[in-house]
Amino acid sequence: MPPDTLSTLISRIDFALISSVHILFPPLTIGLAIILFVSEALWVKTQDERWYRLCRFFEKLFIVNFGAGVATGVTMEMAFGILYGPFSQAAGPFFGQVLGYETITAFMYEAGFIGLMIFGWGKISRKMHLFATFNVALSSTLSAMWILVANSWMQTPTGVEFKDGIFEVTNWLAALFNPNVFAAFPHMLLAAVELSLTFVVAVCAWFVLKRRNVDLFLRPLKYALVALAVVAAVQVYMGDVLGENVLDNKPAALAAMEGQYDTYDKDGNVNNAWNIIGWPNKEGTGLAWSIKIPHALSLIETKTWNGAVEGLNSFPKDEQPPVVLPFYSFRVMAAIGGALLLLGLWGCWLRYRGQLTERLASQQRLFLMACTAAVALPYIAVIAGWWTREIGRQPWIVYGMMTVKDGMSHMSTALATFWLIGFAVFETAVVLGTIWFLLKVCRMGPDLTSPVAGEGHEHLGELDLPEAGKADHPEYVRPI
Amino acid sequence: MTNHLDDMQYFLANAWWLALGVAVLLYIALDGADLGAGIFGLFVGDHEERGAIMAAMAGTWDANETWLIVAGGILFGTFPFVYGSAFHYLMVPLAFVLWGVMARAVTLEFRHLASAKWQCFGDWVFGISSLVVTFFGGMCVGASLQGFKLTHVEGQVPHFAGSAFDFVSAFSIWTGIAAVVAVLLSGVLFVRARFEKDEPIRQDAARWTATIFWLAIGSVVITLVWSLFKFDWAREKWLGHFFWIWAIFGILALVCIDKVRRATLRDDDVSAVLWYCGALLIMGLSMLITLHPWLVPHTWSIRDGASPQVSLITFTMTMGGFLPVMVMYNWYQIWVFRARISKLVSHAH
Questions:
Q1: Which residues of A touch B1 (CB under 8 A)?
Q2: Helix, strand, coil percentages, rounded to 5, for chain B
Q3: Residue A345 domain boundaries
Q4: Average of pLDDT values for B51-74?
Q5: Transmembrane ranges (chain A) (predicted)?
Q6: pLDDT of A477 over the 70 cut
Q7: Interchain proximity A478–B91, CB inside 8 Å
Q8: Which of A64-68, A373-377, B168-172 is the least confident region?
């Protein structure tokens, strides 16, 4: 491989690593914030202490995840300019502006209310705290919206003119409300909620399985399973909407996702079969082999028995995305979507059969183990989904207007390798640390003894006395 | 490439440039204290005390670091041409800064969950990464002041045209060191202000103050003299027709520095921190005005670096709509925690 291609490849992998690791954390922040708001609202409304205990417990997990999200997110913002300098310059007037809005309206907003949410218990009134939690949920959702606006614009760049190497915005509304964002943002938001529900299901199921605090964790488990069944079903529909959106706007990407090389076969009939699995031939002009279901592709994509789906070979060779990765990552994502729906339905069925009571629930060992193990699935699905989306857009960085190659900063092979190794080490440390501490918080379990936070102002001016046995430790008190 | 901004747009670009400068200064003032306290922690032997230093910043570090993100956001949104080329130029030092930022965030947020052995390791990582962020951050500033090479192709945005190690020079290494000294002063003042007066850790910090204070003064003087000889844009302003403006700035900065000294001598720690921030703000603003109309000297002017899409609508939306809301809830957050008294060692979320 010539050194130029090699360094380009390494620097692409580097950006892929930075963005793939970052996307592990924000979905849980978004979804769990919404779930925390719901359970806190239930506590404020019903005064049932169990909701409060659950809130405080899941909040600990939330913070671990949030810390990792900030750590990898700062990197993400800087990485555009460093690794994709020419792209950042060209797209900055729109893309940078939108990311700037994300910083100001969402990131700052979130940072402010997260401080209140974490440290505000007992210092502000219950309603005010609930309001803070609400704002954390709203701001993280807003943040996702801005990011998806920017990313969708790269998929369907409307409202701009590419002139003198700069994307000039000719119509702000058309650029902001580009065709792709209407399907992509709801899909991502639902993914965040689905991931978080699975996370809650897994944690609760583990406690029930271990027969620890069953009275506390069974109720959220049942609620979350029902919610998961509903959300997963809606997500299947939303995924289909996004699929059609891709077909309309980025036909080459859809062709790669489905391994559709030729629109018509040799006899001029429509290629309507859906490839379950397959592998491209050496020349990259068709599938060497595949297992297919006739008519399924036309049904899924065009909702007709024999509708034509444009194949990859109708695009010039240098405008075709790679096939294997989007093809399989798409299938992995879709399969996981189905699996989570089944898990939710399984839970609903057990509940309907009266198996999920405090007395009986812990005996459903297979179900509870499946729930706990399922926590890995939505994470894999999120990464697979983003790979499908981003690799499907290749070779373009801004679809049909600018190629990734033109948007990259030039790096020597040595420098690109230095970056890759450095980031691989640090990002791995962040991921492993996060998993380790999430597990540790779960092992420690919920705090059932501290006094419930009151209506505020109660701790002001009060000094905590040293606990017995720890009196030799110095006390550190901040002056007022 | 010539950028055709009309008068209104040029005015807005200048306003954004000022906002960018203020965000960077706020970052240096606020997170500087956290970074300095982190470096100071490397010299603190007691495990509990190190934990207490980190606990003291636990509630604010992410809000402080947010100003760096805001600066990045303004740079990307309003000065994309500078963002895309300067970050490419600073690829190597920024890598170190980012690794440091990641390591700091993780070791700080996870400390209260870790076992004692891991806490010791984490504290060490926290201190080293604070040092790394500061040194390479300072190098980035020095390297930016020197400017960098751009391509000049008709009809194209100028890209970065130098090599990855152009940022290394005696001057940029010096600014890295100077940043460590400045931040250390900030950190020591922060530790003094956050702990009870008879705490051993506060007394250690107090003992350090005098030495670091004079080191910081020395660093500032060396940086100024070096800049005067090295940079024509600084020479023209400082020794030019309006030299008295900079003389006034200089005197104001000296007054603030003197106040810092007096406040530390009479153990008035909060005043010391405030006067330190005042000195930083005055010196920072005078540096900004010295730079004008350059964003990066001899490389990017405000006019050329600004997005041709700068518009009154987006500016008003940000400064008129979002910013007041932002300031309002930040103020509320600070107000809520105004009188927080807690046993910082037992900090747990």
A1: 164
A2: 75, 0, 20
A3: 6-260+310-444
A4: 79
A5: 20-42, 62-84, 104-122, 129-149, 188-209, 221-238, 325-346, 366-387, 418-439
A6: no
A7: no
A8: A64-68
| Within a domain: A476 | no
The candidate with the shortest Cα–Cα distance to B296, out of B155, B162, B154, is B162
A61, A82, A163, A176, best to mutate vs chain B, most B CBs in 10 Å: A82
Inform me whether the C-beta atom of residue A60 falls under 8 Å from chain B C-beta atoms: yes
Inside any domain, residue A250: yes
């629930």: which residue's tokens? A361
Please check whether residue A290 lies inside any domain of the structure: no
Between B89 and A464, residue with greater pLDDT? B89
Taking chain B, what is the end-to-end CA distance rounded to the nearest angstrom? Answer: 53
Count: domains in chain A: 1
Q: What is the dihedral of CA A324, A374, A378, A349, to 10 degrees?
A: 110
B3 confidence band (pLDDT: 50, 70, 90): low
**Taking the domains of chain B in order of start, what are their residue ranges?**
7-346
pLDDT of residue A388 exceeding 50: yes
Backbone angles phi, psi at B164, to 5 degrees: -65, -20
Taking the Cβ of residue A354 and every Cβ of chain B, the question of whether any pair is shorter than 8 Å is answered with no
Q: Does B27 touch chain A (CB under 8 A)?
A: no
Are B66 and A87 inside 8 Å of each other by CB?
A: no
Q: Is the Cβ–Cβ distance between A430 and A113 less than 8 Å? A: no
Q: Smallest Cβ distance to A85: which of B84, B108, B155?
A: B84
Helix count (H) and strand count (E) of chain A? Answer: 17, 6
- Report whether pLDDT(A58) > 90: yes
- Copy the structure tokens of residue A78: 């800087």
Residue A455, domain member (yes or no): no
pLDDT, tens digit, for every residue of A66-97?
888 888 888 888 888 888 888 888 888 888 88
What tokens were used for A8?
Answer: 């380009």
CB contact under 8 A, A104 and B99: no
Asked if pLDDT for residue A1 goes beyond 80, the answer is: no
Report the 10 Å Cβ neighbour count for A63: 21
Q: What angle do CA B338, A460, A50 make, to 5 degrees?
A: 110
Using CB atoms, which residue from A82, A115, A123 is nearest to B87? A82
Q: How confident is the model at residue B347 (pLDDT cuts 50, 70, 90)?
A: very low
Is pLDDT above 70 for B1?
no
Is B121 in the A-facing interface, judged by CB distances under 8 Å? no
Average pLDDT, integer, range A194-223: 93
Contact call for residues B68 and B31 (beta carbons, < 8 A):
yes
A250: left (phi over 0), alpha (psi -120 to 50) or beta: beta
